Amino acid sequence: MKFIIQIIATIIVCFLLQSFLPWWTLAVGASAVAYFIDNNALPSFVAGFIGAALLWIGMAYYLDQATHSIITEKVNKLLPLNAFLLTGIVGGMVGGLSALTGTFLRSK
Predict the structure, then answer these.
(1) What distances in angstroms separate CA 57 from CA 34, 96, 101, one per listed residue?
(2) Which long-range contacts (CB under 8 A, 24 or more apart) does 56-62 make?
(3) How many domains are contained in the chain?
(4) Domain range holding 86?
(5) Cα four-point dihedral sign 22, 25, 16, 86
């Protein structure tokens, strides 16, 4: 149950922070959520990864649909991965490692 709560809280907190502050506040939000939700290391990393990845994929898809952007098609031709998948991996790694950091800070 803490796993699902951490995913949802990570999405909400990071979305609110990124609405007003730079992209790197994702790391601050994910580590703060992991600090306050007492999980073990692996579930905390996975929850941070999933929460941040879903948030960034959702935001990228929303911006792509809202602007009718053609840049996504061009990026997809250049890179071997889909642009949304690549965005999710990058955001997920930042969120997962930050959540792991928050968990380790709590354990000290």
Answers:
(1) 21, 15, 23
(2) 56/26, 56/87, 56/88, 56/90, 56/91, 56/92, 57/84, 57/85, 57/87, 57/88, 57/91, 59/15, 59/18, 60/84, 60/87
(3) 1
(4) 2-107
(5) positive
Position 13, amino acid: V
The answer to whether the pTM exceeds 0.85 is: yes
Per-residue pLDDT tens digits for 57-74: 999 888 888 887 777 777
- How far, in whole angstroms, is CA 33 from its chain's centroid? 12
Where does residue 74 rank: exposed (0-12), middle (13-18), buried (19+ CB within 10 A)?
exposed
- d(CA 33, CA 76) in angstroms, rounded, equals 33
- Gyration radius of the chain's alpha carbons: 14
77 confidence band (pLDDT: 50, 70, 90):
confident
**81 φ, ψ (degrees, to nearest 5):** -105, 160
